[in-house]
Amino acid sequence: MTQVKRNPSVVIVGAGMTGILMTIKLRQAGITDIIVLEKKDAVGGTWRENTYPGAACDVPAHMYTYSFEANPNWSRFFARGPEIKQYFEHVADKYDVKRDIRFNEEVTDANYNKGKWTVKSSKNNTYVADFIVCATGILHHPKFPDIPGIENFKGAKFHTAQWDHKVNISNATRVGVIGTGSTAAQAIPELIKTGAKVSVFQRTPQWLMHLPDFKFSITMRKLMTRFPVITKMHRNAGKFFLEHIFTKAVTGHFIQKHLLNFLCRANLILSVKDKVLRDKLRPNYQVGCKRVIINTSFYKGIQQPNAELVTDGIERITETGIITKDGKHHDVDVLVFSTGFNAFNFMRPMNLIGRNNLHIDTAWQHKIKAYRSMMLAGYPNFFLMLGPNTPIGNFSVIAMSEVQTDYVIKMINKWRDDEFDEFEAKQEAIDEFNAYVKEGLKGTSWVGGCQSWYLDADGDPILWPYTWQRWVDEMQEPQMEHIDTASF
Ligand code: NAP
């Protein structure tokens, strides 16, 4: 007699790339009791939030796509933000994901007790579920700089992740941009194109790599629609580059590392004519230590007559601009903070409370770690998507989420087959995993003498230091010897 599987209830937090994926995959596995709680009014996560001019993805578009939902119509090699947002909207509509989403409902609390999670939301609703999946993304809490006088500035000021589109920027505007990371490298050239006088305040230069960024012709897109194999070839080429060149370069593989080093250094020399400017833009740490910026427009933009690179260091912000350490006052009308994100919040500020009233802030007070990036001791029937030590260099996070989603479904299926009622990672498995990752991190570029959002309070990068394939292989099957289970 075939046993009827249990149908668990699952609360997913967040309707971004991972939340959409998880909903689709759970349903395909036969799990239908799903509620997705989304704090904003639309799907798309990072691509809904980041509307700054020039927002784009530096992973080739055909690679930055769900494996089961190819898009032959990507308009360019590196898709722009609005097109990516549209893609996620399209997938959510096609798979009718929105019927399970409660929009404008932020999870405030999640409490575990005897096989059930009680989840409370900002609308004072309470949901009880067998599993909770935090699909809350990595970089979603904008970080503002701790610069004296910041509150005194009288002009318009905003973070790139909260772009104020009501502020009109024209050739009469003086714009100050603080930061020169991946976001700034995309936004600054667009600001310069408006004719505004753009002062870029750089604390640390970054390595930039030039990869061709071209439009796909209508004919090519028609061909890709007619022959899906061409789309697949594009995807595979992107995957090959990221897997065998890029990811290996930053994780210590000799040839790839030197190739990437050469490409970034050559890019700077070939792109920036003026030696003084070139020297200001040349980092003094190894390539790949901070995330390598794949970009074709920043060097061009910063050499325009209406652009200025300021490297003297910021002393303080005034009512009308910025004073640098050399005593100079830089007048600006609009101040843009491209100063990154609080990367270690993960699912917080949610009050996540596990077994024995264990608050997540207590569980993570000494170090933020998770078993296989996804599971925590004291938090049964809980999954954190894209948790610590998930990101692999510049690889596609969609591919990472797909692997983790399969893992989640394998664990939930064991529950459905009555193998257990609750599971959680063993503390010693978390510690062993962390030690294993830490060993690999020694040879990577991320510990190459720079400060970056990759590093935790101990200076340990929260990335995966081995190959993509090793990660996929190790995530194939849950190793149950690392996991405690109980039945009621
Ligand atoms: P980021 O890489 O963390 O860069 C923040 C910038 O702000 C740095 O230049 C930093 O300087 C500067 N900064 C911070 N505090 C400062 C202060 N008090 N004074 C002066 N400068 C200060 O942030 P991001 O550019 O938003 O990028 C974050 C991540 O988002 C990327 O690494 C990437 O993973 C992702 N992203 C991806 C894409 C894509 O195309 N896929 C696009 C955008 C972003 P220091 O270097 O000196 O700290």
Describe the protein's architecture and organization.
This protein is of the alpha/beta class. The protein has 2 domains: about 10-140 and about 340-485, FAD/NAD(P)-binding domain; about 150-335, 3-Layer(bba) Sandwich (FAD/NAD(P)-binding domain). It has 13 helices and 21 strands. Strand 9, helix 4 and strand 10 (about 195-200) form a beta-alpha-beta unit. Bound molecules: NADP nicotinamide-adenine-dinucleotide phosphate. NADP nicotinamide-adenine-dinucleotide phosphate binds near residues 180, 182 and 204.
What is the topology?
Elements (H helix, E strand, L loop, with lengths): L8 E5 L3 H12 L4 E5 L8 H4 L31 H14 L6 E2 L4 E7 L2 E6 L4 E4 L1 E4 L21 E4 L14 E5 L3 H12 L3 E5 L6 E2 L8 H9 L1 H23 L3 H18 L3 H7 L11 E2 L3 H5 L4 E4 L3 E4 L3 E4 L4 E3 L2 E4 L13 E3 L6 H4 L18 E3 L12 H20 L5 E4 L1 H15 L26 H7 L8 E4 L2
Parallel strand pairs: 1-2, 1-7, 2-3, 4-18, 7-19, 8-17, 9-10, 9-17, 10-13, 11-12
Antiparallel strand pairs: 4-5, 5-6, 14-15, 15-16, 20-21
The chain binds NADP nicotinamide-adenine-dinucleotide phosphate (NAP).
**β-strand number:** 21
- The CATH C-level class name of the largest domain: Alpha Beta
Summed up, the domain count is 2
Q: Round the mean pLDDT to the nearest integer and report it.
A: 96
Head-to-tail CA distance between termini? 24 Å
Biggest sheet details: 5 strands, parallel
Radius of gyration: 23 Å
Here the CATH topology of the largest domain equals: FAD/NAD(P)-binding domain
CATH architecture tag of the largest domain:
3-Layer(bba) Sandwich
Residue share in helix: 25-40%
Question: Structural class of the helices, strands and pairings?
Answer: alpha/beta
Q: Give the neighbour order of strands across the main sheet.
A: 3-2-1-7-19
**Which word captures the global form?**
globular
Bound molecules: NADP nicotinamide-adenine-dinucleotide phosphate
Low-confidence stretches: none
Relevant CATH superfamily of the largest domain: FAD/NAD(P)-binding domain
Query: Count of helices?
Result: 13
Q: Percent of residues in beta strands?
A: 15-25%
